[in-house]
Specification:
155 residues, alpha+beta, six-stranded mixed beta sheet, elongated, single chain, binds dinuclear copper ion, Immunoglobulin-like, five-stranded mixed beta sheet
């Protein structure tokens, strides 16, 4: 079969790009440890409010300038609606939803996860600059979606 020289070149470019991108993905996940925020555990959404850690949402210190922030999304608010974080703190967000699918995005940071009912999402971020960030729900979750926001204050 005769393959035109341009067609051959195009196939090679496509093939080389595939290998490059797969290599970059492998390098990012294995060598640099970059992972998508993963599913950590699954709870029964109806029980979420009464089960630890979501029975007591909020910020707690777990090490020297290391914190855990337990955040619960529900129609149409976050619990807690305000987080005060010390400057330079490394915070692991542990979050879920008690009812429908919500989102948790903290403006100006890499914290951006979906809150799936009962599924625990974890993401870690270090707050290096003082200031205020809006914490918003980025998944349409009903008529009060636009009212679902909170605040993160780095001080
Ligand atoms: Cu919760 Cu939109």
């Amino acid at each position: 079969m005769k393959v035109h020289v341009y067609e051959k070149a195009f196939l090679w470019v496509g093939g080389v790009m595939l290998v490059l991108f797969l290599g970059a993905l492998t390098y990012a996940s294995l060598a640099m440890g970059i992972q998508l925020p993963g599913k950590v555990a699954q709870l029964d959404p109806a029980e979420v409010r009464s089960q630890p850690p979501f029975s007591e949402p909020g910020l707690r210190q777990v090490g020297e300038n290391e914190y855990e922030a337990v955040v619960l999304g529900q129609i149409w608010s976050f619990a807690p609606s305000e987080l005060r974080i010390p400057l330079g703190a490394k915070v692991t967000f542990i979050a879920t939803s008690a009812d429908v699918i919500h989102g948790l995005h903290i403006e100006g940071t890499r914290v951006n996860v979906m809150l799936i009912p009962g599924q625990i999402s974890k993401v870690t971020y270090t707050f290096d600059e003082p200031g205020e960030h809006l914490m918003i729900c980025h998944e349409y979750c009903g008529s009060g979606h636009h009212l679902m926001y909170g605040k993160v204050i780095v001080e």
